[in-house]
Amino acid sequence: MIENLTLPLLAGMALGGFFFGGLWWTVRKGSTAPNPALWFIGSFILRTGVTLAGFYVVGASDWQRLLAMVAGFVFARILLTRFAASPQEVNHAP
């Protein structure tokens, strides 16, 4: 049972890394671009399309595999949020 959920968990982490890493990159590049709307809309469509396709292919209509993928996706979000935080936000000493 656990062996069957390892691949979906890792796939969810990879998709989460792609989605939120792409979001982080888009915000950094799009904020200085001459046409930021194009960056943000294009990135959103690409990130969402790849993520949904990955969930569809790997999830294979099995709720346990989909749940493992969501867990990996959320875990990747937590990791990337901590990684991408600025040093001022992390070291907020009273």
Task: Describe the 3D structure.
The chain has 94 residues and is an all-alpha fold. It has 2 domains: 1-33; 35-85. The chain contains 4 helices and no strands. It starts with a helix and ends with a helix. Keywords: Membrane, Transmembrane, Transmembrane helix. The chain crosses the membrane at residues 7-25, 37-59, 66-85.
Describe the structure using short key phrases.
transmembrane; mainly alpha; AtpR-like; membrane; 2 domains
Task: Summarize the main sheet.
Answer: none
Helical coverage, percent range: over 70%
Silhouette = elongated
So what's the oligomer here? single chain
Q: How are the SSEs placed, and which strands pair?
A:
Layout: H1 2-30, H2 36-59, H3 63-84, H4 87-90
Helix pairs in contact: 1-2, 1-3
Transmembrane segments: 7-25, 37-59, 66-85
Keywords: Membrane, Transmembrane, Transmembrane helix
